[in-house]
Amino acid sequence: MQEVQGEKPGKAKKERTPMPEQPAEERRKNFNEVTLGYTKEDALAEASRCLACKDPKCVEGCPVNVDIPGFIQLICEENFEGAIERIKATNALPAICGRVCPQETQCEARCVLGKKSQPVAIGRLERFCADYEREKGVKAPEVMPPTGKKVAVVGSGPAGLTAAADLAKLGHKVTIFESLHKAGGVLSYGIPEFRLPKEIVRQEVEYIEKLGVEVKPNYIIGRIKTLDELCDDFDAVFLVTGAGLPNFMGIEGENLNGVYSANEFLTRVNLMKAYDPEYDTMVRHGKHVVVVGGGNVAMDAARSALRLGADEVSIVYRRGEDEMPARREEIEHAKEEGIIFRLLTNPVRILGDEKFNVTGVECIKMELGEPDKSGRRSPVPVEGTEFLVQADVVIIAIGTSPNPIIFKGSEGLEQNRRGTVVADEETGATSKCGVFAGGDAVTGAATVISAMGAGKKAAKAIDAFLKEK
Amino acid sequence: MAYRILEKEEIAPSVHRMIIEARDVAKAAKAGQFIILRIDERGERVPLTIADFEKEKGTVTVIYQEMGKTTKQLAKLSAGDYLEDFVGPLGTPADIRKLGTVILVGGGVGVAPIYPQAKAYTSAGNRVISIIGARNKDLLILEDEMEKASSELYIATDDGSKGHHGFVTDIMKKILDSGEKVARVVIIGPPIMMKVGAGVASPYDVEILVSLNSIMVDGTGMCGGCRVTVGGETKFTCVDGPEFDARKVDFVQLMNRLAMYRGEETEAVEKYEAECRCGLH
């Protein structure tokens, strides 16, 4: 990422320590991690920028309330082991959070330094500590004596892993049920290798298993067992099934060959490693790829398509760049790699040939009108501005809805009109006794860290529930 | 976790039956559902319909024809080997209740998913007329099993080497024409056979169901790769199906979508077979 210079270039302390990364020209051809991580010197330089505020706002900005000044102070003392321990006291997945959290809108957004120049690079420091620990070998964590209570966690994404870790530390016996063959949820199937290496996800899952958590892959609640049956077997259930059902636009040509949901495209590429010729899963390697949407998932899909060898990848988004929900860093990375941004543009229909293959996308220009319910100005088509974009692969990344399977054979679990589980925001308690829910299954698609926040809150509430039971 | 292959048999040229130990799947399985398996870490996830299951033994039977690389690889495995993943039961179970007379039509390996349905419809108290077919008598599968599971069984072969010389749908039409009151027809087989069968049965006052196979990854609604147009609406075969009202299915789209990776599949098979000849497998 391009570093903006501080106000007074003479004082190094004002400037953020840049993160080494693969040059754009190189990385657009491989799936290796884009950013390379701080060296020890980088970490020390960056940590020294922290003002150690008495009333640290950054901690409030973190959904899991990591003791940020505390761990940064330990970095300054070169006590990296102490630093990672401090982070892990509240965050079970630091290597992941340090990479994919939107720090710029959370902890770093509250950093006092950010008012005059740039905030402390908290995410990068967190990643440094986690990577330091992984290289040294992760220590087996301490766990409280067994309580004899059993908790089922349905889904092994960030919310499920976080809750499982907290509950296991409290001495409860936790079993995670995962429908895919690999744990991690969106961390495994959704986020590409170049942003989050799968080896890191694997090691974080291993850490959770070291706490005594059992992970059962290939196990679909709602099919093998209903939620009601699960409730009979466990003292409490935490539903974190995510928002996996892909949304489509309902336009002509959407079922043509070569049109993917971002979920399918990313699952084939990330989970099933379709980019590696040694793996059997297929994916269409487009020459001209169009990705519809403006979130992180759209950026991930576009950058993955580029790495599969596309000549041209463009992102079609109906609002402007300022309205894009994707992280700034991801937008910048995508631009550096040569992704074309077609803003204020919306697809009208998808065109195909006689063999049912995609040949192009007809788009229309948009302009921003009055603000809608989300507070963003809603896009309105400009009549007569239709134009054609050539495409042999089209990826739809306009969001997801919760998966309905969980509601099958479950009495009394309330869901709202959008298909999400109705749950208390603070505790995750649902309308069904002993059943808690969190993450995207409750909120609809959101971020890794907000799911983890929900996992932490629910773990606390589940523990309290079990103690009363 | 791995799933043990207990039995493996070639029941027709290039058609194999495999019995797999998968207790959780067997316990929950119902007629009309399917599983997804993966041979090893580098393998793809392949959906196969459940051909049989025994809850007490904890076993699930699948029947597959050698087509792509994965089914060819599967064909090389034998009893005692393991599959890396075997997940299910997937899909909405068939809606089986007492309806009166039901015609079940199965073509090729499509007879495999018809078999558990024949058993289920029969035990629900229906008169089950089954019609099974294949290109020739050697490719016919589950004849004895279907005989036992049905009230009546008819056979058709394209070349006339056994039973009726012609298509299963000829027999189906004859029965519908005979004036016998039929409540439902279930047709499972190659997409072209289901399309033709649906067309033939369409003018009659009978419910027609088909079970669709489609390309999918996860089988739980997440990838959306299995989309099919039914009655003008996009449906996901894995969670909304696999059974649909045959009169409403857009078969042309289904067949085109199934052909999506045909070029890549041929390449993969060629590469795999070349490696096999070199003794790499």
Characteristic key phrases:
heterodimer, A: 469 residues, alpha/beta, Fumarate Reductase Iron-sulfur Protein, Chain B, domain 2, FAD/NAD(P)-binding domain, 3 domains, five-stranded parallel β-sheet, 16 strands, B: alpha/beta, Elongation Factor Tu (Ef-tu), domain 3, 2 domains, seven-stranded antiparallel β-sheet, seven-stranded mixed β-sheet, 9 helices, 32% strand, PyrK_electron_transfer (chain B), flavin adenine dinucleotide binding (chain B), flavoprotein (chain B), Riboflavin_synthase-like_b-brl (chain B), metal ion binding (chain B)
Widest β-sheet, arrangement of strands of chain B: 6-1-2-5-4-3-7
Strand fraction of chain A:
15-25%
Number of helices of chain A: 18
CATH second-level architecture of the largest domain in chain A: 3-Layer(bba) Sandwich
Provide the β-strand percentage band of chain B.
25-35%
Provide the CATH superfamily of the largest domain in chain B: Nucleotide-binding domain of ferredoxin-NADP reductase (FNR) module
Output the radius of gyration of chain B.
Answer: 18 Å
Number of strands of chain B: 16
CATH topology of the largest domain in chain B: Rossmann fold
**Global geometry of chain B:** globular
Unreliably modeled segments of chain A: 1-12
Mean pLDDT of chain B: 94
Order of helices and strands of chain B: EEHEEEHEEEHEHEEHEHEEEHEHH
How many domains make up the coordinates of chain B?
2
Q: Biggest protein-protein interface? A: A-B, 40 and 41 residues
Provide an overview of this structure.
- The complex is a heterodimer of chains A (469) and B (281).
- Chain A has three domains: 22-134, Alpha-helical ferredoxin (Fumarate Reductase Iron-sulfur Protein, Chain B, domain 2, Orthogonal Bundle); 148-242 and 401-466, FAD/NAD(P)-binding domain (3-Layer(bba) Sandwich), CATH 3.50.50; 245-394, FAD/NAD(P)-binding domain, CATH 3.50.50.60.
- Chain A is globular.
- In chain A, helix 5 packs across helix 9 (122-136).
- With 469 residues, chain A is of the alpha/beta class.
- Chain A has helices spanning 24-27, 40-47, 57-61, 68-76, 80-88, 94-100, 107-110, 113-116, 122-136, 158-169, 186-189, 198-210, 227-233, 262-271, 296-307, 328-337, 440-443, 448-468; strands spanning 150-154, 173-177, 214-216, 236-239, 245-246, 259-261, 288-292, 312-316, 340-342, 345-352, 358-371, 377-381, 387-390, 393-396, 400-401, 435-437.
- Helices cover 29% and strands 32% of the residues of chain B.
- Chain B has nine helices and 16 strands.
- Chain B is of the alpha/beta class and 281 residues long.
- Chain B has two domains: 3-90, Elongation Factor Tu (Ef-tu), domain 3 (Beta Barrel), CATH 2.40.30.10; 101-259, Rossmann fold.
- In chain B, 49% of the residues are buried.
- At the A-B interface, strand 5 and helix 14 of A face helix 1, strand 7, strand 14, helix 8 and helix 9 of B.
